[in-house]
Amino acid sequence: MRIDKFLKVSRLIKRRSVAKEVADKGRIKINGKLAKSGSSVKVGDILRIQFGNRIVEVKVEVLQESTKKEDAAQMYTLLSEERVSETSTKES
After folding, report:
1. Helix H segments across the chain?
2. In the prediction, which pLDDT does 86 show?
3. Cβ pair 35, 29 in contact under 8 A
4. Domains of the chain
5. What is the pLDDT of residues 44-54, one digit of tens each?
6. What is the pLDDT of residues 12-48, one digit of tens each?
7. What percentage of residues in the chain have a pLDDT greater than 90?
8. CA 81 → CA 51, 52, 54, 60, distances in Å?
9. Domain RNA-binding S4: where (predicted)?
10. End-to-end CA distance of the chain
11. C-alpha–C-alpha distance, residues 9 and 14, integer Å
12. Which band of pLDDT confidence, cut at 50, 70 and 90, is reported for residue 92?
C-alpha cells in the first residue's frame, strides 16, 4: 500500500493530499529511509513522521483499504512521540 494512502486510512493524517505533500517534503521515513508519497509500506515497517515541531514514530500492524474511525488506531502501534524545539529546526 502507498504511504500516502496508509496515512489517510489510518487517520494519522486526515487527507491523502496532505499526506502526499508531507511525504514529498521529506518529512517521512520508512525504516530509516526517506519516503516519497508513492513509497510502499508493509506490515512491520517503522514510520517516522514529522508534523511541524512533533515527531511521531509508529509501527505498521495491519494494512486495510478502508476502515471505520474507531478501528483506524489498530492499524499501527505508537512507538514514540517527541517534541522538537522551534529553535533547533530553524536557522537564526
Report:
1. 3-9, 16-24, 86-89
2. 60
3. yes
4. 3-84 (3.10.290.10)
5. 999 999 988 89
6. 988 989 988 998 898 999 999 998 888 899 999 999 9
7. 35
8. 11, 13, 7, 15
9. 1-64
10. 40
11. 8
12. very low
DSSP state of 13: S
> Which H or E run contains 76?
strand 76-83
Q: What is the DSSP letter of 40?
A: B
The alpha carbon dihedral of 42, 69, 24, 32 has a sign of negative
* Rg (the chain; Cα; Å): 13
Residue carrying C-alpha cell 502526499: 20
Q: How far is C-alpha 70 from the geometric centre of its chain's CA atoms?
A: 18
Res 91 pLDDT > 60: no
Q: Which grid cell is 9?
A: 486510512
DSSP letters for 20-32: HHHHHTT-EEETT
